[in-house]
Amino acid sequence: MKILYVDLDGVVADFEKGKNNHPLCNVSPYKRRPDKLPGIYENLDPINGAIESVNLLLLSTKFDVYFLSTAPWDNPNAWTHKRLWITKYFDEKLIRKRLILCHHKQLMIGDYLIDDRRFNGASEFKGDWIHYGSENFPNWKSVLNYLGL
Fold this sequence. Notes:
This protein is an alpha/beta fold. It is 28% helix and 15% strand.
């Protein structure tokens, strides 16, 4: 089985929408650091097609799937909220102990990383970086086609 990592924010969870709808989004110091918004990671909406697509990957015999996300160091509640978020949207049996929170994604060993941003080591990942939201991978359908599902 191929090891596949899936980022959360901007790939599965709609951080942009959550940030824009947060009541403190235009207040200092959060305006420049939306990742510090209180409770921002707790109630994000899923990105269109993400839950169904990740479930296909989780149920596939081709992939060993892990969520690989970066939680802001200065927002310790985010670490808990990300874990609670995935259990809200995915079957606990499929995702139990499959959340990795890491600031250095390039250190992870695997075949694929689905991530929307090049930061935190995503662009230096040694496997195949599937740049979600890019011209080649604008949506989940394009990602699944690339992965042969």
